[in-house]
Design a protein that fits this description.
The chain is built from ten helices and 14 strands. By secondary structure, the protein is α/β, with parallel strands linked by helices. It has two domains: 2-14 and 58-201 and 288-322, Rossmann fold (3-Layer(aba) Sandwich); 17-52 and 202-287, no CATH class. The chain has a nine-stranded mixed β-sheet, sandwiched between helices. A three-stranded antiparallel β-sheet has the order 8-9-12. A two-stranded antiparallel ribbon has the order 10-11. A hairpin with a 2-residue loop joins strand 1 (2-5) and strand 2 (8-12). Helix 2 packs antiparallel against helix 9, helix 3 (59-70) packs parallel to helix 5 (94-102) and helix 4 (72-79) packs across helix 5. The longest helix is centred in the last third of the chain and has 17 residues, at 216-232. The radius of gyration is 20 Å and the shape is globular. The mean pLDDT is 94. The structure holds S-adenosylmethionine. Residues 38, 41, 49, 53, 61, 89-91, 95, 113-115, 141-143, 164-165, 167 line the site of S-adenosylmethionine. S-adenosylmethionine (SAM) binds next to helix 2.
Length: 324
């Protein structure tokens, strides 16, 4: 379905409520209960994520933004003129703006995000700021395959993919390689991917980034249960769960969990789930990388790492990968 709205084109493949329900039921029936992190981002979740990005403890956004600002000319030289920029999980687009300003006459900006309201708000705002730019908003789950995306631009246009915020880290390593392979096919020969990857570091720094002193990350995590209650008619008792961020050294990742404080049950669409004291719902993984490890993963997906930049404190990495 394609609708022309204001200055943007909007393509709507938003997952149905039935998809949300079946993924929730599937996750809660597993031995380790889990919920997919892609459902964090209803309007409230997207707003809470923006708040997280401004927290003193949450360094990734500031670090990645500084890399883009300080190396914009070099990124632009690699991308060349007239690239069509395709962003996966675009969010509010602060860093995107910095990149679009640095690039030489980008021909189009295509934003793909599952969070419909936030996507429409951010692309409409961008289109107002950049009337020179063709802006296309695609509401879709990029994990469900990018093959449904229509042929957005002719084959002659060079495509620059953007995957910022270390969102790649939400995938398990084999899923990340699968996603990168699909993205590479979409970007085509001559295309490239600019991708942010957070670096493994001291446990205390990572822990604080995912369990801030103001409790914003806790509210973000808990919002998933609130969304299930509202959209799927669930009856989770929000006061009976608490947020937990676990730094897991073996897998080099931060896991977010919702921990049941009491013995309890919750019913969603007639399905009943039991929770023991201390039992958790695993809601998100954020894998952390080394530069070498990330390059190896990119190569396994068929990309050729061309350039890597770090922020001054060497907390975060940004990679320009050729879709070789
Ligand atoms: C961690 S935020 C990053 C946002 C932004 N790129 C940044 O760097 O600040 C992840 C974004 O990806 C979107 N997202 C998460 N999973 C997705 C999926 N499976 N398909 C499409 N968008 C997804 C979310 O709605 C959110 O806007």
């Amino acid at each position: 379905m394609e609708l022309k709205r204001e200055a943007i084109s909007f393509i709507d493949f938003e997952p149905e409520a039935a998809d949300f329900l079946s993924e929730v039921l599937d996750g809660l029936t597993r031995p380790q209960k889990s919920l997919p992190c892609k459902f964090f981002y209803d309007s409230r979740g997207a707003a809470l994520f923006d708040e997280i990005c401004r927290l003193p403890e949450y360094y990734p956004t500031r670090a990645e933004h500084s890399i883009i600002v300080e190396n914009g000319a070099e990124i632009a030289a690699l991308a060349g003129p007239s690239a069509a920029v395709i962003e996966f999980g675009s969010g509010s687009g602060l860093k995107t703006r910095a990149l679009l300003e640095a690039l030489e006459t980008p021909s189009a900006y295509i934003a793909i995000d599952i969070a419909r309201d936030a996507l429409l708000a951010s692309t409409r705002a961008l289109a107002r700021e950049r009337p020179d730019l063709e802006v296309i908003a695609v509401c879709a789950d990029y994990g469900a395959g990018l093959d449904r995306l229509p042929e957005i631009k002719g084959a002659a246009v060079r495509r620059l993919g953007l995957f910022l915020g270390s969102t790649i880290g939400n995938f398990e390593p084999d899923e990340a390689i699968g996603f990168l392979r699909t993205a590479r096919a979409l970007l085509g020969p001559g295309g490239a991917l600019l991708i942010g990857a957070d670096l493994w570091k001291q446990r205390e720094v990572l822990q604080a980034a995912y369990d801030d002193s103001r409790g914003v990350t806790a509210a973000f995590n808990m919002n998933l249960l609130r969304r299930i209650n509202r959209e799927l008619g669930g009856n989770f008792n929000l006061g009976a769960f608490r947020h937990e961020a676990r730094c897991v050294e073996d897998t080099r990742r931060i896991e977010m969990h919702l921990v049941s404080a009491v013995r309890q049950q919750a019913v969603i669409a007639g399905h009943r789930f039991f929770f023991g004291i201390g039992e958790t719902i695993h809601t998100e993984n954020s894998h952390k990388y080394t530069v070498e490890g990330f390059h190896a993963m990119a190569r396994m997906a068929g990309f050729a790492p061309r350039q890597t930049w770090l922020d001054r404190a060497e907390r975060f990495s940004l990679h320009y990968l050729d879709a070789a």
